[in-house]
Design brief:
The protein has a two-stranded antiparallel ribbon with strand order 1-2. It is built from nine helices and two strands. It is mainly alpha-helical.
């Protein structure tokens, strides 16, 4: 089944905007933000960028990356398919960064931009698009665990129930470790 690319809004669907909407990745690849091409997606670019991007806009007691968050999500997933979805669920952030939710809510076009990039990533790696609901469930429990271990023990201030976090503690990894583990997990899951 072919998955259709989500449509651009009128404000984004202008040649002068589309022409300037690209980033150069570590691999030297030119990736279009508004017209993403699955062939331009590189797993090495995703692993590198996510390993060096801080979760929570850096507001944690220790550096903790989006890449480690993605790896942990893959490690707790119940199936290989869900694990692959978890590994790539935040991969759009390799191209547009990790905006905190309150900022995303102020930028209505951002959801479309992220959705289009997610479409390209899903097509590249044969992922379900949009992602299955279990991805959000695992993501929520990881958030609860991250808040508990990296930000505050006052879970109520985040509307987190006491039984929501996972039982394991989060011990941050350095970016180089995260990048290597991300690539290792991806290769293992895509066999």
């Amino acid at each position: 089944m072919k998955i259709e690319l989500p449509a651009l809004t009128e404000s984004l669907n202008r040649p002068e905007i589309i022409e300037k909407s690209w980033v150069i990745t570590l691999s030297g690849n030119r990736f279009s933000i508004l017209k993403p091409d699955p062939e331009a997606v590189r797993i090495e670019d995703i692993a590198c960028a996510l390993a060096r991007q801080a979760r929570f806009n850096g507001h944690t007691r220790f550096f903790y990356s989006v890449g480690q968050h993605s790896c942990l999500g893959a490690e707790v997933a119940p199936t290989k398919e869900v694990a692959l979805q978890m590994l790539f669920h935040d991969a759009t952030e390799a191209y547009v960064g990790d905006l905190v939710s309150p900022v995303k809510a102020l930028l209505p076009d951002f959801e479309i931009i992220e959705s289009r990039i997610h479409w390209a990533i899903a097509n590249k790696f044969g992922l379900e698009f949009p992602a299955p609901k279990i991805v959000k469930q695992i993501d929520r429990r990881l958030l609860a665990t991250e808040v508990r271990d990296l930000i505050t023990t006052d879970l109520k201030s985040w509307n987190i129930k006491e039984d929501e976090p996972f039982d394991f503690p989060i011990i941050p990894w350095p970016p180089e470790v995260t990048e290597a583990r991300f690539l290792e997990l991806a290769r293992k899951l895509m066999k």
